[in-house]
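DM from R.C. (forwarded with permission)

"hey, sorry to bug you on a friday — could you get me a structure for this? deadline for the figure draft is monday and I only need the backbone to look sensible"
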Amino acid sequence: MEALARENVRQLTPYLSARRLGGSGDVWLNANESPFDNDYTVSGNRLNRYSTCQPQALIDAYASYAGLQSEQVLTSRGADEGIELLIRTFCEPGQDSILFCPPTYGMYGVSAETCGVNRKIVPLRDDWQLDLPAIEQSLDTVKLVFVCNPNNPTGNLIERRDIERLLEMTKDKAIVVLDEAYIDFHLEATSTDLLARYPNLAILRTLSKAFALAGLRCGFTLANPTIIDLMLKVIPPYPVPVPVEEIACQALSAAGLARMKFQTLDLSANRAYLQAGLSMLPGVEVFDGYGNFLLTRFPDADALFSALWDNGIILRRSPIENCIRLSVGNREECEKTLAFIRQQLA
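My reply, with the result:
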């Protein structure tokens, strides 16, 4: 059967999600999930009928939250489906390319490979900002430029002026896709206002992080109506299950938004607690983060990661040398993790 598969799929290295990597323990700070397990009500109605492709109540609710018009919003099965939809909509397999800037989220490259679309890689500078001259020289055949802001796994914000310069240099050439999966932790850095000036901008959002709904698989693409209409031509017919619509609308209600804002403040306080505690340890470098995680460099990250793993504290190993990414959990999880690391580095 393997011989029947497409060659690029046979050669593909899949994205190693936190769940694929496994592990066992009682502290899970490896997937940038929220520690808050909020309650929702599902009616169980309409399950005998297919769902609406784009439920109007859900689209309207997220448009209101994002400060946009409903025609600028598409909902999908997580932001991951949004990535693939954009590639399938705008890239011709075997001819066109996407461009992305590691270290960053790995699904951009995996989705392109799956679709038979070429990848161009322009690494971030040493300060983890965009290398705009190198990007400009690499735009031939590029239809989509993916930029994560705040960036995962580094946690930093991309300079606003560089985002605008990138949009200028790609006008009538390519679409800039800003992945704002973590923007709810620092909303003042969003680029949604740029949609009015740049028709070549698309923004990815999700309910997985700040809204504590990773298991719901509900994401959004924000763009001008032309891009949205084109994506609707390739999206599967029923992408939003009825229970997903019900729960997402509750999360985006006035009460849901108030709860989300309270919980993001709580997580930001825990992030500051972790950052302060880790920064005091000898030989440890903690990078500023604007999401619900911190990237930290240790003297021997491999040994520390293994010790944590073996003791049921599951973090995420980073491809950046001697770095580990720590998701921000509840205060008890953060205290336990920090105490164990202190003991190991003593």
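R.C.: lifesaver. The longest helix spans residues 254-279.
me: no worries. The chain has a mean pLDDT of 95.
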